[in-house]
Design brief:
Number of strands: 11
Strand order of the largest sheet: 3-4-5-8-9-10-11
Radius of gyration: 19 Å
Number of helices: 12
Bound molecules: adenosine-2'-5'-diphosphate
C-alpha cells in the first residue's frame, strides 16, 4: 500500500475508503470487506451519522485477525457545532465512543464554518455562528492540543482555503498534517495544492469519482458526470481499466491521498485494484486539460437564507 509522508514523517496510507452517504448497515459490511481486501485507511466523520457502524466493521475485522489496530489508519472529523475550544475534545471523545476506538489516527476540522452547539444543519441565521464569534484559530488551538492527549495521533483540516490555513498556522504555530478537499480532474486546485506543499501539508482527495451518489437536492440540474467523461473513458479503454480506476490512479499520481466511497463489495475490490493502474504522461496531460474549477460539493448549502457565510469567503 502506497503511503505519503506527513510533515513529521508519519506514513499516511494514500488510499482509503470513504464513508459519506454510506448507509449504516451497509457501511459495517463495507468496512469489513474493505479491510479484508487490503484497505488500511478508513475515512469517517461525526456528521455521516454512521460512525458506530464503521466502528463495528473495524472491530469485526480486528477480531477476525484481518488487521491489527496499529496497522489501520482511521480518520474522523469535528462537526461544525463543536468549534468552541471547550467542545473540541468532548466531540472527539464522542466520536471515539461511537467508533469504539481509543484513538483516531487523524482528526480534522470538517469545515471552516461554525454552528451553534447542537445544530447539525442550520437553516436560520441564529443557528450559525460567525467566524468572528468562533475564530478558526481558536478551534485550531484546541485541535493542536489533541495529540498530547493520545486521543488523536494527527490533526488537520478539511475544506480549508490557502488563506484559512495561513490564518490558523500563523495564529497557533502548528501546521495541519492534512487538508481534505474535493479533488478530481474537473476540480484540480493546483494553486491550493502548491500552497499546501510549501507548508508540508498532504492533500486527501474527496469526491474523487464525482460523488454521483449525492442526494438529488445537492446536485445541479446540468451536472456533468465525471465517470461518463469521454476523455476519462478513452484513457480507461487504452489502459484496460474502468473510468473509476483512471480517476483513482490520477489522484495517486498527483501525490494526493484518495478515498473513493463504495458500499458495493465488487467496487470496493476494484477501487483497491485501481491503485496498481499506471497512467502515462499523455494520459496525465489529457486529464489536466479537463480542469474546469467545477465543484460537486460546492458549499452553497452553507450560504443559503440568512447565512453569514458566502461562497467567496468559503473558497477564497
Ligand atoms: P456505490 O457505493 O454503490 O459503489 P465519490 O467517492 O466520488 O464520492 O463517489 C462515490 C459514488 O461512486 C458512490 O455513489 C459509489 O456507489 C460510486 N462508485 C464507487 N466506486 C465506483 C466504481 N468503481 N465505479 C462506479 N461507481 C463507483
Amino acid at each position: 500500500m502506497k503511503t505519503l509522508a506527513l510533515h513529521d514523517g508519519t506514513a499516511f496510507p494514500a488510499f482509503g475508503l470513504g464513508t459519506w452517504l454510506s448507509e449504516p448497515d451497509a457501511v459495517r459490511k463495507a468496512v469489513r470487506v474493505a479491510i479484508e481486501a487490503g484497505y488500511r485507511h478508513i475515512d469517517a466523520a461525526y456528521i455521516y451519522f454512521n460512525e458506530e457502524e464503521v466502528g463495528r466493521g473495524i472491530a469485526e475485522a480486528i477480531a477476525a485477525g484481518d488487521v491489527a489496530r496499529e496497522d489501520l489508519w482511521v480518520t474522523t472529523k469535528l462537526w461544525n457545532d463543536a468549534h468552541a475550544p471547550d467542545d473540541v475534545q468532548p466531540a472527539l471523545e464522542r466520536s471515539l465512543g461511537l467508533l469504539g476506538l481509543d484513538y483516531v489516527d487523524l482528526y480534522l476540522v470538517h469545515w471552516p464554518v461554525a454552528h451553534q452547539p447542537g445544530v447539525m444543519r442550520p437553516v436560520k441565521r441564529e443557528e450559525y455562528a460567525t467566524l468572528q464569534e468562533r475564530p478558526l484559530a481558536a478551534t485550531w488551538e484546541a485541535m493542536a492540543a489533541l495529540p498530547d492527549t493520545g486521543l488523536a495521533r494527527q490533526v488537520g483540516v478539511s475544506n480549508f482555503s490557502a488563506s484559512q490555513i495561513g490564518t490558523i498556522v500563523d495564529a497557533v504555530g502548528v501546521t495541519p498534517a492534512v487538508n481534505q478537499v474535493e479533488l478530481h480532474p474537473y476540480l484540480q486546485q493546483d494553486a491550493l495544492l502548491a500552497a499546501m506543499k510549501e507548508r508540508g501539508i498532504v492533500a486527501t482527495a474527496y469526491a474523487p469519482l464525482g460523488s454521483s451518489g449525492r442526494p438529488a437536492g445537492m446536485k445541479r440540474k446540468d451536472e456533468t458526470s465525471l465517470l461518463g467523461d469521454p476523455v476519462v473513458g478513452a484513457i480507461a479503454q487504452a489502459r484496460e481499466c474502468s473510468p473509476a480506476a483512471v480517476l483513482i490512479a490520477w489522484a495517486l499520481a498527483r501525490g494526493t491521498a484518495v478515498i473513493p466511497k463504495s458500499t458495493n463489495p465488487d467496487r470496493i475490490a476494484a477501487n483497491l485494484a485501481a491503485t496498481e493502474v499506471v497512467l502515462q504522461a499523455d494520459d496525465m496531460h489529457a486529464l489536466a486539460e479537463l480542469d474546469a474549477g467545477a465543484r460537486y460539493v460546492d458549499g452553497t448549502f452553507w450560504c443559503v437564507g440568512q447565512s453569514p457565510y458566502t461562497l467567496e469567503g468559503l473558497w477564497g
